[in-house]
Write a structure and sequence with these properties.
Layout: H1 2-22, H2 25-41, H3 57-60, E1 86-90, H4 91-105, E2 109-113, H5 128-132, E3 137-139, H6 144-156, E4 160-164, H7 175-182, H8 185-188, E5 198-204, H9 219-223, E6 229-231, H10 236-248, E7 253-258, H11 261-264, E8 266-270, E9 282-285, E10 290-294, H12 298-310, E11 316-320, E12 323-325, H13 329-339, E13 342-349, H14 354-365, E14 375-379, H15 389-392, H16 396-409
Parallel strand pairs: 2-3, 2-4, 4-5, 5-7, 6-7, 10-11, 10-13, 13-14
Antiparallel strand pairs: 1-8, 6-12, 9-11
Length: about 400
Amino acid sequence: MMATLLSRRCYKSITLSFHNYQQHLPAIIGARSSSYSSSSAAATPHYQEAVYNNNKDDDQSPPQPFPYESYNPTNPDPNYPSLGPTTKLNLFQSINSALHTSLSTDPTAILFGEDVAFGGVFRTSQNLREEFGSQRVFNTPLSENGIAGMAIGYASVGGTAIGEIQFADYIFPAIDQIVNEMAKFRYRSGNQWSCGGVTLRAPCGAVGHGGCYHSQSPEAYLCHTPGLVVVMPRGPRCAKGLLLSSIRCKDPVIFLEPKILYRSAVEEVPDADYEIPLGKAEIMQKGTDVTIVGWGAQLRRLQLACDLASKEGISCELIDLRTLLPWDSETIIRSVKKTGKLIVSHEAPITCGFGAEVAATLQQECFFHLEAPIQRVAGYDTPFPLVSEKYYLPDETKNLDAIRKVMELAK
């Protein structure tokens, strides 16, 4: 009874918020064609430094350098042309910059979720309500199912819905809306309807003290759903470009943000409005001996493993998938045909993890090029542990052991 009443109250509250937008939709949607296309292609939006300097003590300190000295976020990438001035930002500031750009260039864009109006628990939306108003940046009830449902409804009438699931661990109450509605909306109507304007953001992964309810990486669940796009950036620079591409994508996107990087990953991020293509992997480091594939925060551990391997004379080609669905199999296939060896590594449990899909595809496409069995280095098949997190995570030592193993087997 109590659960039913709570559900009805959440629904009523969200419905009232949505009705508030219905009266503005004709003007908003009408402005979209004239304002959105021209403004998004026009002058570079200015990212205000005040966006990340507020009166909270924990936000007063400047961005801190990335804690892993050998992690090099400035590797050249053909997807990063010269974009003019840059600002040193950490991940949450980069996400904030992308959200600011989206709200500035798209008059139909709205941002909502639990505590979003207050800046969010990770400060990714701070100061946006003050600049864009409570009609476009607002809080929702504690209802992930309601957040996803409202996003679908708003996008289905032409708006751009940016919803936040406060922790990816709690995306599961919204799975029915995501899997059975959002992902199938266009398909079941024969392309007559669309909710492609939905982007759901969710902080994910280990953070050092999150335990089993604030540390999970649910990408494999989501990647099993045709109709979705699933994205996970590894740092601030690619996060801004990937998030802008996700918000403007004509398909619904789940954008997973490694929360351990919110303050620890710092890069020079272009001030410009720029996009990074979805479905395109990035070769972070070229090599000739072994191909190593990862995504999100795992790339920092893999970079360390590659650096350690190079001291032993092993040349590693490190690839960041960036987009998990659809994933760039062609880039990985070309690399494995060159190196003859593959290691896939991720935080999520190994059984049915997304690394299994990568391994199966490469086994099929590169069988006669492989010089050693494909290795998967991942989390254990246990709930995410609190006090044993450092033993659970597939760190650089475990990945270095896998590199040595494939090199030995290939002799």
